[in-house]
Design brief:
CATH superfamily of the largest domain: Helix Hairpins
Order of helices and strands: HEEEEEHHHEEEEEEEEHE
CATH architecture of the largest domain: Orthogonal Bundle
Number of helices: 5
Number of strands: 14
Structural class: alpha+beta
Strand content: 15-25%
Radius of gyration: 49 Å
Helix content: 40-55%
Largest sheet: 6 strands, antiparallel, barrel
Distance between the termini: 91 Å
């Protein structure tokens, strides 16, 4: 082989060797870059797990709730007016429903008449006591006079100055006077039982009549039914002319200014959840750009399934473990609620910062 033929082959071999070196270098750099990316990802995930995932617990199984107020009548009656409609805002004390007050007014008039009659009866007892006292005094005077007459005749009877018939009459008069005193005392004592230890105003008969009058007055006032709390009217179930019974629910008032969030967290999320920890809440109504802030107000005494209408029967042989959820009540900031009101039942997402001690 000539020298000219050897040189191209040698050059080709050198080029191949250089190319292999470059490929090896590129592979090493690629592996190093991949390792750096993996290391960065692991570091980032670790930082996320430490700073966020280990710090916050979140759930989208959360809903707006509140303690609704029922409007119920305290007395039975016929509805004369209904002054509210669904979705209407009301203040505490606003008139919601008016019942027909005819029967209540008649009952009040009757009870006032009975109170007046009781007062007159008691005044009669007092007047009778004064009359019986006078009768008792007269009977005492008659008894004293009969006693003197009897003693005088008994003294004269020994000398024969007084006949036996006259002495007998004196003795009978004395006995009659004694009986009259006894009768007068008994009559006064019987009447005194009705007024003893009581004035006209505190007499039991007057107190009873006054209590009935006051009850009738209260029943008249109860024909006007007012809102027990401020809020929004919901589920109105009453119409004009309807006969309603005491205690029947007629209207519900939802106090939208006092709503809270019931967030149902998995049991495995609650290890570090404490009352008072800060919570960030987002509503599907306003979107992710709007956040509400609140605190953990309390944890339910049992899981949601415990208080279900048909609780789970875990004692059966085909039992399957299901992760349970515990309702957590979240108190919301009042100023944020006033700026963006929430309706009961809206879906929410709640995130608790468990690093805080509450």
């Amino acid at each position: 082989m000539s020298t000219l033929e050897v040189q191209p082959a040698l050059l080709e071999a050198v080029n191949q060797q250089a190319e292999q070196h470059r490929n090896t270098t590129r592979r090493k750099r690629a592996f190093m870059g991949l390792a750096a990316v993996v290391a960065s990802g692991a570091l980032g995930y670790g930082a996320y797990a430490w700073l966020h995932a280990g710090r916050y617990v979140s759930t989208d199984n959360a809903y707006v709730a509140t303690e609704t107020a029922q409007v119920t009548p305290a007395i039975a009656g016929i509805v004369r007016e209904v002054r509210v409609t669904d979705t209407q805002q009301v203040k505490q004390g606003d008139v919601v429903i008016v019942l027909d007050d005819t029967d209540a007014r008649l009952a009040l008039a009757q009870s006032e008449a009975e109170l007046g009659r009781a007062l007159r009866r008691v005044r009669g007892y007092v007047a009778t006591d004064r009359s019986l006292a006078a009768q008792q005094a007269a009977a005492d005077a008659d008894l004293a006079r009969a006693k003197v007459d009897l003693e005088r005749r008994e003294a004269l009877a020994a000398s024969g100055s007084v006949s036996g018939d006259e002495l007998t009459k004196a003795r009978n008069a004395f006995a009659t006077a004694q009986a009259s005193v006894t009768a007068a005392v008994s009559s006064r004592e019987a009447n005194a039982v009705l007024i003893v230890d009581a004035t006209e105003e505190t007499n039991p008969e007057v107190s009873l009549a006054r209590a009935k009058r006051d009850q009738a007055l209260v029943n008249l006032e109860r024909t006007v039914i007012r809102a027990p709390k401020a809020g929004v009217i919901a589920r109105r179930s009453v119409q004009v002319g309807q006969q309603v019974q005491a205690g029947a629910p007629l209207v519900w008032v939802v106090p939208v200014d006092e709503v809270h969030v019931d967030a149902n967290f998995k049991e495995v999320q609650l290890e570090r959840v404490r009352i008072g920890q800060p919570v960030e809440v987002k509503s599907d109504l306003y979107g992710r750009s709007v956040s509400y802030h609140g605190t953990v107000a309390g944890l339910a005494g049992g899981t949601g399934s415990t208080f279900a209408t048909i609780p789970a029967q875990n004692a059966t042989g085909n039992w399957i473990k299901v992760v349970q959820r515990v309702p957590v009540r979240i108190r919301l900031d009042a100023a944020e609620l006033a700026a963006r009101p929430l309706q009961v039942g809206l879906s929410m997402t709640a995130t608790i910062d468990t690093r805080s001690d509450g």
